[in-house]
Amino acid sequence: MQRLEIIGHIGKDAEVKDFNNNQVINFPVAVSESYTDKQGKKVTNTTWYEVSKWGNSTKLAEYLKKGTQVFISGKPGARAWKKEDGSIVTVLCLNASDIKLLGSKQEAKTTDKSPFNTGNQVEDDDPSNLPF
Asked: Pairing mode, if any, of strands 88-103 and 42-54?
C-alpha cells in the first residue's frame, strides 16, 4: 500500500460534487520546499497536488479555503493527458484519507469554532508569501 503525507496551502476554495449517492471534495494544495543555493540565494520549489476526499464529508469543505494550511495523508496518484497543442500535462493527485486544518496567523488571532480545527497553529505561516 502506498501512503503520502503532505503539509501545504490550499490553492483555491474546495468544491463539492455529487456522484451516484456519493460526494467528493476537490481542491489543489501547494507544497513548498526552500533551500539556499551555492551563491547564497534562497530557492523555493513548489509542487502542486490535486486533492480529492470521497465520502459524505461536505461540512469539511466549508473550512477548506484558499490559503489555509493543511495536513493531508492518503493514496498518491497521477493523471496525464495531451493538450490540443500536443503537449502533455501531468497532474499529481492525492486521494485523501485524512485532512487536518493547521490554520494560519490570521486564524490564530481569532477564535476558530471549527469542529475540524486541530488546535495546531503554525507561527511562520504568512498567506501573503504564498506562490499563488
From this structure: parallel
